[in-house]
Amino acid sequence: MKRFSVISIGAIVAALLLFPTVLFAATADEIMKKSQAAFLYPGKDFKARVMMKLISKGGQERVREMTMLRKNYGEVGGNQKYFIYFFQPADVKDMTFMVYKYPGRDADRWLFVPAINMVRRIAAKDKHSSFVGSDFTYEDVSGRNLEDDTHTLIKEEKIGPKDCFVVKNTPKAGDVDYSYKLSWVDKANFLPLKEEYYDRRGELYRVFSADEVKYVKGFPTVTKRTMKNLQSGHTTEVSYSKTDYNIGIDDSLFSERFLKQPPKKWIE
Amino acid sequence: MNNKLKSVFQMGVFILLSMPLCARASDISLHGFLQGNYSLDTASSSPDGGDFKWAEERVQLKLEVPKEPFRLFLKTDAFYDHIDEKGDLELREGYIDFTANKWDLRIGRQVITWGLGDLLFINDVFPKDYEAFFSGRPLEYLKKGIDGAKVGIYPGFASFELIAIPFFEQNHFPDPKRFWMFDPMPEVTNRGKVKPAVTLKNTEIAFRAYRDIAGFDASVYFYRGFFRQPSMMPDNPMMPTKLTLFFPKLSVYGASLQGRALDGVLSLEAGYYDSREDRSGTNPMIPNSQTRFLIGYQRQIWEDFTVGVQYYGEYMHDYSDYKKNLPPGFPQERKLHELTTVRLTQFLLHQTLRLSFFAFYSPSDGDYMLNPEIKYNFSDHIWAAIGGNIFGGGERWSQFGQLDKNDNVYLQMRYEF
After folding, report:
1. What's the 3-state SS for chain A?
2. Could you tell me the residue ranges of all domains in chain A?
3. Global pTM value
4. Does B68 touch chain A (CB under 8 A)?
5. Chain B window 275-334: which residues touch A at a Cβ cutoff of 8 Å?
6. Where are the domains of chain B?
7. What's A29-267's CATH class?
8. Domain B3-416 belongs to what topology?
9. Average pLDDT for runs of 10 along chain B of length 417
């Protein structure tokens, strides 16, 4: 009896202690959901000419230039299809790459190699694969399943003039190279303006920043971004041009036919 | 028409056809590369006494002229070969595309790649250049273009490709001056070759239908044409004085399936090779009908490290008839010829350095081929690769065993623009 009451008191105390966190967690989940919608799912579809600069510690630059097309299927957080056409560098020119993304499991990926006119599925894990050798992983480009992390609102802070929520995202499983990530989410439009990745020893090692935000057809869009690896000194700068939404991309684009012969009107 | 004449003829036709297009097109693109490619013997000198399997400089130009709904594409190489001490031009690809909403057409010299195998071909019945492969040339030179027309039809529920090839092209095998190879009748030096004549009846037909089935990419294939490896017909089976190389009739019926499974990508492919000139299996000079099959699996193990493995088999039908009719002294093939492969690929330094290893090993014949390679992209325009081809095991007539004395190390360097 006595023991029971100790447990009850313990439970009440624990509940009281946890209560604010639970409240915060709910709002943190909401924030990250809105952020995902604003950052990775705006519009029915999307197109941009993407220029990536991979800059080594010594300052050597390599360029990856591509057109990226995306189409949403279903709700925010649902399935998406990506079509990427490479302009540069010369040894990958005319290559195309297609991704069927599913929340909660690894994507299907196909690569077209023009030199031998071959479309091939490729095996890759979203969480551990660098996107074309850059500092972004596939998951950084196409997004991480929200269910895979616990989200905690830890504070509110300004970045420049912009008010932000600061949310701590901790992976539930040790399935990524970082132990947690802090996201500064713009209160006004829910875009992530900065993200910090901490390694397993708790040290900051990767920093994302949204360097330019433009409104395209009413959708706030990060048109310049940087990912910096503090440990290797390597940086990737990305800029979008010709950004557009709701352009009516047909389902048939995401097919072997058009991987082999990408229509000019979509890739230009 | 001989090949060179045909190439020159086709190039002429394309230049003529492309002139009106060029005149109007605004966004013509021109790309290509300069390349040096050298392969040094490491096991023994070549049969002709030289020390190189390959030594050449090469320029490639790729010209693209889009003019919707048409598009012209030309890929032409010019090279100088230091072993034969000669230069030449080679039209690698040259075609015109026409694209409509639900179908398209490609006419001219074009590369076609079907099937799922990694360096193993069942339903990819199109011509290969094995000399290029064994000499350490870049992989794209393993594939040769076909001269024909391809129609694609895309009604939505599935996709279809139909190919007609009026000009037969055989596989290119290593030059006996450069490669040591097994020859079952070395004493007969008088040899001729008969290619299928260019007639309507001899036009090769290839068909593929494909669609998604429950998340898997499924294809069925059909081919009606000829073996691309020649068979030898002696003038007199007892005392041959002359051998005639010819290409027996072949049909292939096949299917393939590829998709995500077991945390990786799983591939299944099979084909029935119907040897139409030797259905009873009694003619020892013509390959028997076979069933070929392959299972492949690839998976990423850690960041930028991928492993691929394959098991492949060729099962000979009418084996007892084959054995009964095989002339004495001829090497006897097995009823089931097996091959396994492994491919390891590790990217480093932001995917600018690639370490790779590919191996064939035949459990049935005991022979192998190993190909380690290092490739580095010095910049966005310049890369170089160094690798080796090592052959051995098995018998002196088996697929890789016969290449035992042809080990080589190679260098590929390319400036791309």
Report:
1. CHHHHHHHHHHHHHHHHHHHHHHHHHHHHHHHHHHHHHHHCCCCEEEEEEEEEEECCCCCEEEEEEEEEEEEECCCCCEEEEEEEEEECHHHCCCEEEEEEECCEEEEEEEEEHHHCEEEECCCCHHHCECCCCCCEHHHHHCCCHHHEEEEEEEEEEECCEEEEEEEEEECCCCCCCCEEEEEEECCCCCEEEEEEECCCCCEEEEEEEEEEEEECCEEEEEEEEEEECCCCCEEEEEEEEEEECCCCCHHHCCHHHHHCCCHHHHC
2. 29-267
3. 0.91
4. yes
5. 298-300, 302-304, 306, 308
6. 3-416
7. mainly beta
8. Porin (2.40.160)
9. 54 55 68 97 94 97 94 97 96 97 97 97 98 97 97 97 98 95 89 95 98 96 98 87 96 98 96 97 95 97 95 97 90 96 97 97 98 97 98 95 97 97
